[in-house]
Amino acid sequence: MKTRTIFVTLILALFTVLNSHAQSQSEINSGFEWYTLDEAQEKAKETGKSILLFGYAEWCTYCLKMRKESFPDSSVQQSIADYYYPVQLNGESEERVSYNGKKMPAKELARYLRLVSFPTHYFIDSEGEILGAQPGYIEPEIYSPLLEYVGSGAYGEMGFEEWLEQEGKLQDGK
């Protein structure tokens, strides 16, 4: 009985220590500066750049994979720097955010955006209008061209595959 009590106590202590050192996804260094939505909208209006809103949840393994594999990729970082102000939105958070001048909990904005799967990448123009969204994990070799395609405005002129072909970015017929 005494051994069992000690074992349970050790397990609880270990869990407490591990939990206290757990890092929030939003604190992971993705290789660039994240803006608040308010800051990004202000800067976007000044410069004409778009906003890349990354909708995530703390429990989401593919969100974590984006942070550790896709965001740190140099071509992805360059595309973000050229065209976007990156913003992260925890779709389950009560933290208050501001979108188009209206303050609300992040999870309310997530409902408005119809953020139901994680991760989802929202492309928002400098006036705060949603251009489109792409759900799921995106590998760097697809993500970087997608960011460039939307950021450059080519989405209004031609389809993504046509643009990839025109830009010579189509790999092995994919």
Describe how the helices and strands are arranged.
Blueprint: H1 2-20, H2 37-47, E1 50-56, H3 61-70, H4 74-83, E2 84-90, E3 96-99, E4 102-105, H5 106-112, E5 120-124, E6 130-135, H6 140-151, H7 160-166
Parallel strand pairs: 1-2
Antiparallel strand pairs: 1-5, 3-4, 5-6
Helix pairs in contact: 4-6
CATH architecture assignment of the domain at 34-70 and 85-138: 3-Layer(aba) Sandwich
* CATH structural class of the domain at 34-70 and 85-138: Alpha Beta
- Strand and helix order: HHEHHEEEHEEHH
Helical coverage, percent range:
40-55%
**Please, how many helices?**
7
CATH topology of the domain at 34-70 and 85-138: Glutaredoxin
Briefly note the structural class of the backbone: alpha+beta
**Silhouette:** globular
For CATH, the homologous superfamily of the domain at 34-70 and 85-138 is named as Glutaredoxin
Report the sheet with the most strands, covering strand number, pairing sense and barrel closure.
Answer: 4 strands, mixed
Sequence of strands across the biggest β-sheet: 2-1-5-6
Distance between the termini: 62 Å
Radius of gyration: 20 Å
The number of E-state strands comes to: 6
Strand content: 15-25%
Mean pLDDT: 89
Which ranges are low-confidence, i.e. pLDDT below 50, for 5 or more consecutive residues? 6-21
